[in-house]
C-alpha cells in the first residue's frame, strides 16, 4: 500500500504557541519605546508624560507582515486553519479593540472608522438597498401617487400603502437588532 504524500506548502507555524509568541512581539513593538537621555533617564513632555518614540497603531496588515505573510489576505486565509483560528481571531480582536478606542479620540476617528469597516465584520455602513427594499420603495411611491391623484379611489391604495410602511418598519427593526 502506498503512503500518502503531503500536498501543498508546509505550514508556516508548527504550533499555536509559536504564532502566539510572534503576535506578542508585534504588539510589543507597536507600543514603541520611551525616549531616554544620555544617562538612560526617561524624557518627559510638558505634561509630565514620558515621550514615546517609534509607536505605531496595530493593524491587521501590520500583524500579517510581522507574522511573515505577504498580505493581509494571506493572514485571513491562514486564520481558516483549525489549530490557529482562535489565536489569530484573538489577535485581530486586539487590533479591533485599538481601532474602537480610537473612535473616541479626536485625532484617530477617520482612520479607525476605515479600519473597522474594512477589516472587521459588522462594522460596514449600509449604502446600497437590497432588492426587496428597492421594490418596497417603488410600491410605496406608486401607492402614494395613487392616493394623491385619486387614480385608485377605493381603499386598496391606502391599504397597500399601510402594508408597505409596516414592512419597511419591520425591516428597519430587524436590521437594528443584527
Instruction: Give me the side-by-side strand order of the main sheet.
Output: 1-2
Strand content: under 5%
User: Which secondary-structure class do the elements indicate?
Assistant: mainly alpha
Please give the largest β-sheet.
2 strands, antiparallel
Number of strands: 2
Mean pLDDT: 82
Element order: H for helix, E for strand: HEEHHHHHH
Number of domains: 2
Could you characterize what this model shows?
The radius of gyration is 27 Å and the shape is elongated. It contains seven helices and two strands; from the N terminus they run H-E-E-H-H-H-H-H-H. The chain is an all-alpha fold. The two termini are 53 Å apart. Helix content is 56%, strand content 2%. The protein has two domains: 16-95, no CATH class; 131-177. Pfam families: GP3_package. Residues 126-178 form a coiled coil. Keywords: Coiled coil.
Amino acid at each position: 500500500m502506498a503512503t500518502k504524500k503531503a500536498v501543498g506548502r508546509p505550514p508556516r507555524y508548527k504550533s499555536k504557541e509559536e504564532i502566539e509568541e510572534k503576535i506578542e512581539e508585534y504588539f510589543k513593538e507597536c507600543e514603541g519605546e520611551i525616549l531616554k537621555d544620555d544617562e538612560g533617564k526617561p524624557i518627559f513632555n510638558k505634561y509630565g508624560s514620558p515621550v514615546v518614540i517609534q509607536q505605531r497603531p496595530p493593524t491587521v496588515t501590520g500583524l500579517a507582515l510581522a507574522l511573515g505573510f505577504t498580505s493581509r489576505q494571506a493572514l485571513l486565509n491562514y486564520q481558516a486553519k483549525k489549530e490557529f483560528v482562535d489565536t489569530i481571531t484573538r489577535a485581530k480582536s486586539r487590533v479591533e479593540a485599538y481601532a474602537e478606542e480610537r473612535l473616541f479620540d479626536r485625532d484617530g476617528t477617520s482612520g479607525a472608522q476605515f479600519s473597522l469597516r474594512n477589516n472587521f465584520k459588522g462594522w460596514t455602513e449600509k449604502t446600497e438597498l437590497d432588492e426587496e427594499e428597492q421594490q418596497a420603495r417603488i410600491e410605496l411611491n406608486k401607492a402614494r401617487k395613487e392616493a394623491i391623484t385619486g387614480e385608485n379611489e377605493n381603499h386598496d391604495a391606502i391599504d397597500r400603502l399601510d402594508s408597505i410602511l409596516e414592512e419597511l418598519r419591520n425591516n428597519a427593526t430587524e436590521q437594528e437588532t443584527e
